[in-house]
Every structure is written in C-alpha cells, then in structure tokens.
Amino acid sequence: KAGVTQTPRYLIKTRGQQVTLSCSPISGHRSVSWYQQTPGQGLQFLFEYFSETQRNKGNFPGRFSGRQFSNSRSEMNVSTLELGDSALYLCASSLSRTVAYEQYFGPGTRLTVT
Amino acid sequence: DQQVKQNSPSLSVQEGRISILNCDYTNSMFDYFLWYKKYPAEGPTFLISISSIKDKNEDGRFTVFLNKSAKHLSLHIVPSQPGDSAVYFCAARIHQGGSEKLVFGKGTKLTVNP
Description:
The complex is a heterodimer. Chain A is mainly beta. Chain A has strands at about 5, 10-15, 20-25, 30-40, 40-50, 55, 65-70, 75-80, 85-95, 105, 110-114. In chain A, strands 2, 4, 5, 6, 9, 10 and 11 form a seven-stranded mixed β-sheet that branches. Chain A has a four-stranded antiparallel β-sheet with strand order 1-3-8-7, with no helix packed on it. In chain A, a hairpin with a 3-residue loop joins strand 4 (about 30-40) and strand 5 (about 40-50). By secondary structure, chain B is mostly beta strands. Chain B has no helices and eleven strands. In chain B, strands 2, 4, 5, 9, 10 and 11 form a six-stranded mixed β-sheet that branches. In chain B, strands 1-3-8-7-6 form a five-stranded antiparallel β-sheet, with no helix packed on it. In chain B, a hairpin with a 6-residue loop joins strand 4 and strand 5 (about 45-50). The chains are: A mainly beta, B mainly beta. The interface between A and B is medium-sized, with 27 and 26 residues.
C-alpha cells in the first residue's frame, strides 16, 4: 500500500505570495491532518479534515486554510506569505478520526519564503 | 504556551548503552501519549504509545514510562543502536471540539555513537 505523498517536496516563494500544498493520504484513509514543523516550535497542529469537513483547527491565523476533496486528498493554502512561514509542512492520514498510533505522516513539503 | 515539553534538545549516548528521553506535560486532560521518531527528509513514524491509565508499555527495545502525578513520561531505548539516531518527538492526545488533536513537543535529537 502506498504511503502518504506530498507535493511538491520543496518550494521557494517570496513574501506576499500565496502557496498551495497537496497531500494524498493512504488509500482508504479519510482523515487528513496538517502540521507545521519549525526548529523553534516543533510540530504544531494546523487543522484536520475528515469527510471533506474541517473538524479541528489549531492556533494559526486565517491566512492558513485548507480543504479536502471527495477522494480524501487535501490541499493547504497559505496566503500573503511571511518570512516566518518558512517551515516543513507535514500531513498525516488516518483511517478514522483517532489520531493515536494510526496516524501516518508524509515526508513533508519544505517551504522557504524569501 | 508549550503544553508538552522536551527540555533536552539533544542527547548523545554510546552504542549498547541506555538512551532515556524525557517529556513533561502540563495539561491533565491529555489521555494518550505517543513517541514518534523522525529521520531527516522523512515524516515522523510512530514508535510506541501509552494510555494515561497505564504506567508502562514495552515493545522490544523500547519502553515508555508514564508518571501521571509528575506529569512526566520517558522513553527508554535498551540497548541503543546507531540506527536509533534520529529526532524523537513526544506527543499527547487531547479531545477538543468533538475531535482529537495531538500536541507535540519540540523534539530531542538522539545521537548513538558506535
């Protein structure tokens, strides 16, 4: 079974631009969560989608948004990029909404904002 | 407000010895704790978990201990191997808004020297 895939793997953007990241969960998984990883803050929860609905949201500004499609693939969008948005963005999928051990992470998208 | 704290950013041990990674938390509503391991350029992978109703869980070379009164958990790796060199994240689960969320620590980089 293929793992969680994220595209693109690397991205360079300039301040003020917007960016869209994509995540394809493991086949059959309906829950997708997004995390931001930075050296200073570790992994921080962004939001979780289940059955095309956002079920939970972390403490990030409204510039960060996402959506999930009927095939469970998910996209994350960041508008008006700031230098501080430079981070590794990870998505994780799970079969159910239980975010315990059943959560599988993708390799991440490394976003650099210049 | 860092609810899950890994106070040691790095740890270095000799091959064959014990590695002890520590994690402290502040929120008594956490009901499940997990450890993830992350290699460079890969997403975190689940390692071991423990329910808040237990005080110990063992899986091969890995043992997690939970001290609820101290709000402290630790991961023991015995014996340590060079392949264990990675960043280890402690995470805690909390139920919020009808769904679950994982709160991660900032990670501890373990280096096992041959």
